[in-house]
């Protein structure tokens, strides 16, 4: 009823239901009836008896571990990239972005900033145009040069924003803020821009 | 060489999933960006403080007390909101450049991120950029944290796109100082305290409403005769801006000859330049944001395509399955053209490989012997070096017709081959050590072998332990997934798997292909593929029923499916050459391997991303579409399931578990596929535990024969 079929040691493979061991390979001459002329049955038998021996490692298995090491490296690199990416986004969303402060310059003492050309040209035109809303003096960064600033008609104006308080970021600011065009402004009487604020008081920069 | 399942990839996948989620969120958030549109104004808005409403359009709030500036005479500061837009902004830039004019662009952060090149061009041509929030949110009604986030992100986007930060800010939906409401003023104050210069406007042309070029020009030129300067509000995005472009041309043409200058806002107000270069660190962070947003929008595009393609494929599969199932049933169940002779029934050998099957081996052997098969047959139990009492139990049964073979442990394929070598009959039936047959199973199983073209027959596996949710899901899966598929494979002659639980083979065929191969974990799939490739037909016999014990715990289920999936991939790879071969092998390869590759590997691999995208669509897009799609799909699957159950003569009731299956079971199967692919890529070698048998059949008397 039983026959002992011995397995030849063979190559490793991924076993289905047991710890790794050699696959089967029947030794010819297994116990059983005495040998007789091979019939087609037995030829099939023999073929089957020798079957199932893997030529090498099972499919996909890389015995040297090279693919594993390579994949590990790639995986670590990708992981690091993702962490850096998420971190940068997190920092970008969580921390505030610095807003460059805008100096509201004190009048007169600042050199004229490049690119603000037309003070002279404008002065010429502005004069004859008359003022607009002179009663509401907006502060203008173009202010009269030192000392000569007439009192701003702010007193007469509505208690509007600008007049009285001085520039927040005045002398402290290094930005060559607004260009004071010097002489031009004082020469234009009615122009609202010509009226500089009472720049006696300078507020601390915020 | 490392042994065991790979594990590190889960962290990577988690990170990837997180990144994908963040990108999807970013895209959804950014595309809430809309242009100027009518919004609900409160009925009686509370005006801002009068000093503001009567002041100029440019506000500085840094010092705690607001200061405002007015535009000098004969100076027009053209401002363009909501850009940059790839269609309209270049045209406006061209107009400005042609006339030597400059303007200020209050850009929306999301658009900056999408058009970094255009942003740089705006700055290059001497114009200025201010902030208009990231998604054109109404700052008056948005909570403080949102407002700050929007402005911060806009600065970051600007830094990433053009390497600058801006001082200027204009609130969306703002207009002239006169019209400022108290809530808007509060929002402006908040921004101002952070250092922004808040910009309103003198002349609101409302060009976004497209009133006509004439009207726009007229509003912009309101006080031209008096030579007043103005800040003019226009829009360069958010719709058809052809009128705006024309209007800008006309405004410049009319006013420039009269001595007006068209400058940037900072130049007009004699303020320092609005855009300041930033250090490298800011640029890097900003660039990440810009890159993320651009990646996100292309990602959602691709995911949408994938989603659509997956949907189409699944529907196609369902249709094909149902069609071929119908064909199969018609062919198999129609009465034969001529009466089938009652015999002869060929001699059978039933080969039972057993490894540590002491729990169920007795029931299996008894059920095999308790059959109505009229021909001669023997049962060969191959004890594959069991460590428990399997061999002793079989010996103890001492039943006639049962042979026991003992061999050292060598795996299932070797056991099967040993049993096949020891058998003397023409037909072999290979079963599992825990399968239970019905009385008529053998008779039905062997019947198709009367056709000499048939090389192997697949039986019909059914789940015995259907109690509990897991059992029910597997029951549904076996009936719908496996058996419906097998009908189609039978008709198309591309059967990938004759289940190891119940399969009949011709011995010469088995010998010719070299026996059961052992270099994959799914030797049943491997064997069937070899047989198909050699030109033999493999058919599905629905009436030959075998009851198996499905895994009852999640861990065991995972193990089983991992083995099946990985083994199937191994077999597919091993037989990949059949894709390009001709003849029967090529036909099989192209049909079977393509089907398996698409539906067992590719689609499940992408399924988590597609699911995430569906969730995204639910939240950010119109939720009706995904819901309808999902409902339609589930309905189609339920219909197919009902049909499959009915074909098999099963009750329809367990189908209620199908919609639930979509959420948990399907996800589990994704993970299995992912794990299998990673294992294959890494080339890991696996050590396997056995599936613990609980002996479902030990105490149950043999099943009665089914009808038919």
From TrEMBL, chain A:
Transmembrane segments: 74-99
Keywords annotated in UniProt: Membrane, Transmembrane, Transmembrane helix
Keyword hit for Membrane: yes
Keyword Kinase: no
Annotated protein name in UniProt: Translation initiation factor IF-2
The organism of origin for this protein: Actinomadura violacea
Region of interest: Disordered: 1-41, 102-206
Amino acid composition bias (Low complexity), ranges on this chain: 18-38, 137-187
Organism superkingdom: Bacteria
Ranges of Basic and acidic residues composition bias in the record: 1-16
Automatic annotation (TrEMBL), chain B:
Ranges where the NodB homology domain occurs: 74-263
Record keyword Cytoplasm present: no
One Pfam family from the record: Glyco_tranf_2_3
Keywords: Glycosyltransferase, Membrane, Transferase, Transmembrane, Transmembrane helix
Membrane-crossing residue ranges in chain numbering: 302-325, 595-621, 627-647, 668-688
Region: Disordered, residue numbers: 37-66
InterPro entries attached to this UniProt entry: Glyco_hydro/deAcase_b/a-brl (IPR011330), NODB_dom (IPR002509), Nucleotide-diphossugar_trans (IPR029044)
Annotated signal sequence range: none
Family under the similarity heading: Belongs to the glycosyltransferase 2 family.
Protein name (record): Glycosyltransferase
């Amino acid at each position: 009823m039983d026959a002992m079929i011995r397995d030849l040691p063979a190559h490793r493979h991924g076993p289905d239901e047991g710890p790794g061991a050699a696959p089967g390979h029947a030794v010819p001459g297994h116990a059983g009836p005495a040998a007789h002329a091979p019939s087609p049955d037995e030829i099939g038998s023999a073929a089957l008896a020798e079957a199932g021996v893997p030529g090498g490692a099972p499919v996909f298995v890389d015995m040297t571990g090279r693919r594993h090491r390579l994949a590990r490296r790639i995986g670590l690199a990708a992981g690091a990239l993702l962490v850096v990416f998420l971190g940068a986004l997190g920092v970008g969303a969580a921390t505030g972005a610095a807003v460059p402060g805008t100096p509201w310059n004190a009048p007169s003492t600042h050199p004229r900033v490049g690119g603000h050309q037309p003070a002279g040209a404008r002065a010429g035109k502005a004069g004859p145009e008359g003022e607009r809303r002179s009663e509401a003096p907006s502060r203008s960064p173009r202010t009269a040069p030192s000392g000569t600033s007439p009192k701003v008609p702010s007193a007469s104006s509505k208690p509007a924003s600008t007049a009285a308080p001085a520039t927040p970021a005045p002398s402290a600011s290094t930005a060559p803020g607004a260009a004071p065009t010097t002489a031009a402004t004082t020469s234009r009487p009615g122009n609202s821009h010509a009226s500089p604020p009472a720049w006696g008081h300078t507020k601390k920069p915020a | 060489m490392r042994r065991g399942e790979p594990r590190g990839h889960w962290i990577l996948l988690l990170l990837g999933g997180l990144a994908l989620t963040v990108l999807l969120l970013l895209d959804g958030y950014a595309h809430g960006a809309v242009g100027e549109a009518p919004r609900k104004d409160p009925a009686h808005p509370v005006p801002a403080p009068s000093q503001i409403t009567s002041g100029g359009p440019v506000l500085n709030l840094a010092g705690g007390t607001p200061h405002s500036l007015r535009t000098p005479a004969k100076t027009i500061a053209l401002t363009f909101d909501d850009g940059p837009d790839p269609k309209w902004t270049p045209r406006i830039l061209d107009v400005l450049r042609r006339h030597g004019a400059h303007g200020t662009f209050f850009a929306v952060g999301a658009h900056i991120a999408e058009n970094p090149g255009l942003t740089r061009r705006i700055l290059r041509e001497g114009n200025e950029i201010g902030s208009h929030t990231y998604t054109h949110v109404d700052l008056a009604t948005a909570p403080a944290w949102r407002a700050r986030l929007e402005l911060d992100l806009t600065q970051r986007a600007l830094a990433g796109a053009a390497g600058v930060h801006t001082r200027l800010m204009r609130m969306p939906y703002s207009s002239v100082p006169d019209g400022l409401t108290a809530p808007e003023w509060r929002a402006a104050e908040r921004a101002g305290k952070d250092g922004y210069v808040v910009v309103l406007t003198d002349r609101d042309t409302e060009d976004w409403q497209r009133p006509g070029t004439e009207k726009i020009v007229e509003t912009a030129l309101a006080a031209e005769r008096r030579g007043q300067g103005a800040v003019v509000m226009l829009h360069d995005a958010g719709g058809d801006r052809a009128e705006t472009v024309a209007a800008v041309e006309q405004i410049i043409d009319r006013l420039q000859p009269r001595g007006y200058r068209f400058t940037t806002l900072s130049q007009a107000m004699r303020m320092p330049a609005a855009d300041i270069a930033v250090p490298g660190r800011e640029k890097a962070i900003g660039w990440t944001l810009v890159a993320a947003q651009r990646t996100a929008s292309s990602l959602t595009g691709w995911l949408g395509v994938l989603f659509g393609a997956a949907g189409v494929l699944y529907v196609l599969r369902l249709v094909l399955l149902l069609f071929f199932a119908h064909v199969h049933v018609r062919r198999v169940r129609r009465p034969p053209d001529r009466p089938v002779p009652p015999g002869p029934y060929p001699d059978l050998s039933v080969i039972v490989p057993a490894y540590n099957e002491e729990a169920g081996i007795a029931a299996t052997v008894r059920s095999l012997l308790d059959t109505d098969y009229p021909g001669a047959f023997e049962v060969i139990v191959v004890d594959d070096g069991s460590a428990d009492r399997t061999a002793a139990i079989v010996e103890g049964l001492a039943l006639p017709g049962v042979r026991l073979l003992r061999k050292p442990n060598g795996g299932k394929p070797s056991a099967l081959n040993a049993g096949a070598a020891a058998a003397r009959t023409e037909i072999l039936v290979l079963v599992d050590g825990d399968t239970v047959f019905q009385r008529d199973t053998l008779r039905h199983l062997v019947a198709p072998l009367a056709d000499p073209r048939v090389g192997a027959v697949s039986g019909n596996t059914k789940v015995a332990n259907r109690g509990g949710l897991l059992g029910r899901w597997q029951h549904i899966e076996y009936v719908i997934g496996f058996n419906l598929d097998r009908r189609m494979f039978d008709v198309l002659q591309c059967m990938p798997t004759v289940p190891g639980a119940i399969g009949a083979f011709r011995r010469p065929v088995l010998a010719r292909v070299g026996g059961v191969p052992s270099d994959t974990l799914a030797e049943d799939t491997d064997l069937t593929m070899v047989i198909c490739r050699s030109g033999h037909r493999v058919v599905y016999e629905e009436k030959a029923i075998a009851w198996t014990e499905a895994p009852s715990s999640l861990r065991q289920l995972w193990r089983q499916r991992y083995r099946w999936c990985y083994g199937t991939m191994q077999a597919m790879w091993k037989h990949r050459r059949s894709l390009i071969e001709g003849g029967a092998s090529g036909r099989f390869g192209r049909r079977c391997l393509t089907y398996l590759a698409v539906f067992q590997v590719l689609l499940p691999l992408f399924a988590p991303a597609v699911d995430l995208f569906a969730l995204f669509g639910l939240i950010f897009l119109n939720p009706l579409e995904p819901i309808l799609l999902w409902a339609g799909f589930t309905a189609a699957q339920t219909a197919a399931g009902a049909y499959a159950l009915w074909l098999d003569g099963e009750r329809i009731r367990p189908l209620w578990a199908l919609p639930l299956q979509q959420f948990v079971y399907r996800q589990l199967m994704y993970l299995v596929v992912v794990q299998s692919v990673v294992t294959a890529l890494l080339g890991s070698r696996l050590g396997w535990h056995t599936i613990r048998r609980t002996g479902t059949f030990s105490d149950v008397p043999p099943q009665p024969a089914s009808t038919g």
